[in-house]
Design a protein that fits this description.
The complex is a heterodimer of chains A (367) and B (429).
Chain A: H1 2-21, E1 28-31, H2 36-49, E2 56-58, H3 62-69, E3 80-83, H4 89-97, E4 103-118, E5 125-126, H5 128-135, E6 138-140, E7 146-148, H6 154-157, E8 168-170, H7 176-190, H8 194-201, H9 205-215, H10 226-234, E9 243-245, H11 250-259, E10 264-268, H12 269-274, E11 279-281, E12 283-284, H13 291-295, E13 302-310, H14 320-327, H15 330-333, H16 338-341, H17 349-360
Helix pairs in contact in A: 2-14, 5-7, 8-9, 8-10
Chain B: H1 8-52, E1 57-66, H2 69-72, H3 80-84, H4 89-99, H5 106-113, H6 120-130, E2 138-144, H7 147-153, H8 170-181, E3 185-189, H9 192-195, H10 208-239, H11 244-257, H12 261-275, H13 283-307, H14 311-319, H15 324-352, H16 356-360, E4 365-366, H17 381-389, H18 395-425
Antiparallel strand pairs in B: 1-2, 1-3
Classes of the chains: A alpha/beta (367), B mainly alpha (429).
Chain lengths: 367, 429
């Protein structure tokens, strides 16, 4: 027994040292779960059509991916990270601190967020203001002060909507979809109210504080930048059961919508497309979620998708250049490319050409 | 007679019916508890099996393929390089065009070609590379259909829905029906599902890579956890003095057994990846983390097995002059081993089904290539289920259930093995 253990311990040490000494022969990718379905298709095609190994892709979420990405340069750190939002200044600073100096930014396309319900129920025609009033934790009351959300039925929010209890299934706060939903729907909806809109624009104590008093916002959330206060107030989702956190699994939300025709669900456009026989996407501000309306920007709830490449790794890890070329090729992200089959909305041609040439020249990001 | 004093016997007789009734009620409650449990197990199994059994079959389409050198673009060369980069999709396109000559529009043709899986050209490539003399010959070959077609043939796409709500329009459905009438559409056993790694195309995705990853991880776990666990148990049970320190260790081991598994993942991330520098996503790291997780289980089971060996055996061995170590290794350990093995197998089964700790060390990843060793990036079986459950494509729903069936089969057979071992070798004293 003891002999066996010494042998094992020795083997482990050998394995450990050889692992650190050896180089990596595959591209390592981390990041957003929204970009994951698209990046994986590109990786698979790349692996099958070239002599390189298929890149490994971890689904860690945008924030988690950038944290790993910015941890340093070297084979133990990922080469590429996917993100469903743009990299933040603080993240670039973290990257710089850890020696990741040059980052190449690639925008890949758009993803729409659908607000859908079962096909057996009537189609919802919503505005972002309706959604804000239905889902925000606090909404402006009769005196203009913020009060806890009193609305129980969609009819209370807007008399043209059906008299159905407000019940929305959506992603939890850890999800990038939730971030985008807060910003694009709740943030935009809140700006339909003049005081909230001016709070967002307000800067400096003398501008922010009176507005906060007028709106009845407690001083504990005070910040001299009105935008921060606005985000705290407008992006909070109610916790009284009207919004149900359904986990990150969009398939689960669709199953629940099928079972409960009164509920609405919030999920990515690709899931709506795949399940068009079960659920229907609500019309938001007069526009239905569709491939065309997201591509031309008329559907308001859509966001750009990115990935970031570590320039120091290009040339050191085999296959990065090839992967970039595959991703930015017309057959992948073009108007009829295979990524559109998976539900990604392509960028306009001019933008694609711009990013493709930036990638080719490995032009680093400058914020 | 009437004023006979009440005896104890009368009291007992009077309460007898009530006591019997009480017992009957208790038994019924017990039966009901078991029945409810079984009902839920049954529900789980029927839902998984009814969802997943169809994934073991995959729709194939038989096409007449002519290995035309001109279309392949290979000229007279027959070397590996040329053959592997030849245009095999062109052969499939030609064959489909022959069956549907009336489809001329470019968009419609794209739809037509999409009926066959994107993996089909790779299959043709393999056939031709294994036998380059086939160039110029003519063969009817079964090729996998696209996942949407597969779903249609399996009846998972509702034809009664309006056309724009379906993944397939009337034209494509018409093509599939025509092919079916010609007898060239068939559901065949889905070997890809067991041999292939992950893929974003459901018809090409398999659990081969995930099972290999799980096996490597479990091998590492077994090789480390069993000897360490058993040695710990023997030392603590047979040699260690009973004092405050050993009590403290015992409490800690019991506590560790109850620690949520994600904590072991965090520990593994900090220790094995950040400090030791082992690669992310490697089954070796997975195995090490799972070792930490299963050790307490094995130690506790092994100690229980050692405790159940009666002291008379030890005393007899000591009595004929065996040393303490001889006593333990020649007499006590062989008797305790079946119990230890049972504990180990149950620990292994637990490790096989674990996802949370693997999340932290990067094994929740898209890995297409089947890992060739414990240092290659890989996933594990439960992780594969987790990833597929999150995929938008309809065809992944049945594959998720099918993968769960395979995982359950492994777990059941491991637990069965544990029961059999116990039955066969366990001794009652």
């Amino acid at each position: 027994m003891i002999n066996k253990r010494t042998v094992l311990a020795a083997a482990l040490v050998v394995a450990a040292t050889s692992a650190t000494a050896a180089s990596r022969d595959y591209v390592s990718i981390v990041g957003s779960s929204t970009v994951y379905p698209f990046a994986t298709v590109v990786a698979e095609t790349f692996g099958k059509t070239t002599k390189y190994k298929t890149p490994k892709i971890e689904s860690t979420g945008s924030g988690g991916g950038l944290k790993l990405f910015c941890a340093g340069v070297g084979i133990e750190h990922p080469d590429i990270t996917n993100a469903s939002r743009r990299i933040k200044k603080s993240e670039v600073a973290l990257c710089n601190k850890n020696g990741v100096k040059e980052i190449i930014e690639v925008k890949v396309g758009y993803d729409g967020i659908a607000i859908a319900n079962s096909k057996t129920a009537p189609l919802f025609k919503l505005s972002r203001k309706d959604l804000y009033l239905a889902l925000a934790k606090q909404v402006p009351g009769a005196q203009g002060k913020l009060i806890d959300n009193p609305y129980k039925s969609w009819k209370d929010v807007n008399p043209t909507l059906p008299d159905i209890k407000i019940e929305v299934l959506g992603p939890p706060p850890t999800s990038g979809t939730r971030d985008a939903f807060s910003e694009l729907v709740l943030g935009a909806g809140a700006q339909a109210f003049a005081d909230l809109k001016s709070l967002r624009k307000a800067k400096g104590e003398e501008a922010v504080k009176p507005l906060m008093i007028k709106l009845g916002i407690p001083m504990s959330v005070y910040n001299k930048r009105g935008k921060k206060v606005f985000k705290t107030v407008a992006y909070s989702i109610r916790e009284d059961g009207a919004y149900i956190e359904a986990g990150e699994n969009d398939n689960l939300i669709i199953q629940k919508l099928e079972a409960n025709p009164n509920a609405l669900g919030v999920f990515g456009f690709s899931f709506l497309e795949q399940n068009a026989d079960k659920v229907q996407g609500s019309i938001v501000d007069g526009v239905a979620p569709a491939f065309e309306s997201i591509a031309d920007g008329s559907y308001p709830v859509s966001r750009p998708l990115f990935f970031y490449v570590k320039k120091a790794h290009v040339g050191r890890i085999p296959g990065i250049k090839g992967y970039l070329a595959e991703f930015t090729s017309n057959k992948a992200w073009g108007d009829e490319g295979y990524l559109t089959d998976k539900g990604m909305i392509p960028m306009p041609k001019q933008e694609r050409l711009q990013f493709a040439s930036d990638v080719k020249n490995l032009k680093p990001l400058s914020l | 007679m009437a004023d006979r004093p009440i005896t104890t016997l009368d009291k007992v007789n009077a309460s007898l019916a009530r006591r019997y009734a009480k017992e009957r009620r208790f038994r019924r409650a017990g039966l009901m508890a078991i029945a409810t449990g079984l009902l839920f197990v049954l529900l789980l199994f029927t839902s998984i099996i009814s969802n997943g059994y169809s994934a073991f079959w995959q729709t194939h389409v038989k096409l007449d393929i002519t290995f035309n050198a001109e279309q392949l673009g290979i000229g007279d060369a027959r070397d590996f390089e040329t053959l592997s980069s030849a245009d095999y999709a062109a052969l499939i396109r030609t064959s489909l065009k022959k069956i549907f000559p009336e489809v001329r529009d470019r968009k419609e043709r794209r739809k037509l070609y999409k009926m066959i899986s994107t993996g089909a050209p790779l299959l043709l490539r393999e056939i031709l590379i294994s036998d380059p003399t086939l160039v110029g010959s003519h063969h009817a070959i079964w090729l996998p259909a696209d996942d949407d077609i597969d779903m249609l043939v399996k009846g998972q796409i509702d034809r009664t829905q309006p056309e724009d709500a379906r993944r397939l329009n009337n034209q494509v459905i018409g093509w599939v029906d025509r092919l079916t009438e010609n007898g060239v559409v068939e559901q065949q056993f889905n070997t890809t599902f067991f041999t292939a790694g992950d893929s974003r195309e459901p018809e090409l995705a398999g659990i081969g890579g995930a099972i290999t990853g799980s096996l490597y991880a479990l091998l590492v776990t077994l090789l480390l956890a069993f000897p360490i666990g058993v040695a710990t148990a023997i030392y603590l049970e047979e040699f260690a003095p009973k004092n405050r320190w050993t009590d403290l260790i015992e409490i800690n081991i019991n506590n560790l057994a109850a620690v949520p598994s994600i904590v072991f993942g965090l520990l593994g991330l900090a220790l094995f990846i950040n400090i030791v520098g082992l690669p992310r996503s490697a089954p070796l790291v997975g195995g090490l983390v799972l070792t930490l997780m299963t050790l307490p289980t094995i130690i506790i089971a092994s100690r229980a097995a050692l405790k159940s060996v009666p002291p008379s055996i030890r005393e007899a061995a000591m009595g004929i002059g065996a040393s303490k170590m001889q006593t333990v290794f020649h007499h006590v350990l062989p008797q305790a081993l079946p119990g230890m093995l049972t504990g180990t197998i149950i620990g292994m089964a637990q490790a096989l089904g674990e996802t949370a700790p693997l999340l932290m060390i990067g094994m929740v990843a898209f890995v297409v290539d089947i890992p060739g060793g414990p240092l290659d990036p890989s996933t594990a079986l439960p992780v594969q289920i987790f990833l597929w459950a999150d995929s938008p494509e309809r065809a992944f729903v049945e594959r998720t259930s099918a993968a769960i069936m395979v995982l359950l089969a492994f777990l059941i057979s491991m637990n069965l093995l544990a029961v059999l071992l116990r039955k066969k070798f366990e001794r009652r004293w």
